[in-house]
Amino acid sequence: MSMKIITHSPQETISTAEKIGSFLRAGDIIAYKGGLGAGKTTFTRGIACGLGLGDCVSSPTFALVNEYRGDNITLYHFDMYRIQTEEGLESTGFFDYPFDENIAVIEWSENIEKFLPKNTIYITINPIGENEREIIIEGGERFADSWN
């Protein structure tokens, strides 16, 4: 099942992601698809807010991963733009993160898709205008059940 949402501003995109973030639970992995400037980091900012982690989110392009820690959960924000192989993925320490106890969001997930678990939630963000975004969620049935 997939769900499509259209947002008309960066704030609306953040609000949509915030709502999705409020439904996330330990063990969830979000795999983003979308080109440069699609709004993946903006979306992550909303997810972090929905988890109660604040909005101090920045792109992990050069760090490969940023961690946003809360009292009960950590959000791992990965950028896999430069990762193309299993060896490259392993060199990031990706397989050592405690995903069962936390949540991960992955930019450029297309590069590591074959290494992601079956229960991964895919979010595609397509720009359809200067501020408008088409957001397609696949594998997140619980979001559709709770969406207005």
Layout of helices and strands:
Layout: E1 2-7, H1 10-23, E2 29-33, H2 40-50, E3 65-69, E4 74-79, H3 86-91, E5 103-107, E6 121-127, E7 133-138, H4 141-146
Parallel strand pairs: 2-5, 2-6, 4-5
Antiparallel strand pairs: 1-7, 3-4, 6-7
Helix pairs in contact: 1-2
Overview of the molecule:
The mean pLDDT is 88. The chain is built from 4 helices and 7 strands, in the order E-H-E-H-E-E-H-E-E-E-H. It has helices at 10-23, 40-50, 86-91, 141-146; strands at 2-7, 29-33, 65-69, 74-79, 103-107, 121-127, 133-138. Helix 1 crosses helix 2. Strands 1-7-6-2-5-4-3 form a 7-stranded mixed β-sheet, with helices on one face. It starts with a strand and ends with a helix. It is of the alpha/beta class. The relative contact order is 0.26. It has one domain: Rossmann fold, CATH 3.40.50.300.
Radius of gyration: 14 Å
For the largest beta-sheet, the strand count, sense and barrel status come to: 7 strands, mixed
- How many strand segments? 7
- Give the SSE string: EHEHEEHEEEH
CATH superfamily: P-loop containing nucleotide triphosphate hydrolases
Q: Please state the average pLDDT score.
A: 88
Strand order of the largest sheet: 1-7-6-2-5-4-3
Query: What number of domains?
Result: 1
CATH 2nd-level architecture: 3-Layer(aba) Sandwich
Q: What distance lies between the first and last C-alpha atoms, to the nearest angstrom?
A: 17 Å
Shape: globular
**Beta-strand proportion:** 25-35%
The stretches of 5 or more residues where confidence is low (pLDDT under 50) are none
CATH class: Alpha Beta
CATH fold-level assignment: Rossmann fold
SS-based structural class? alpha/beta
Number of helices: 4
Helical content band: 25-40%
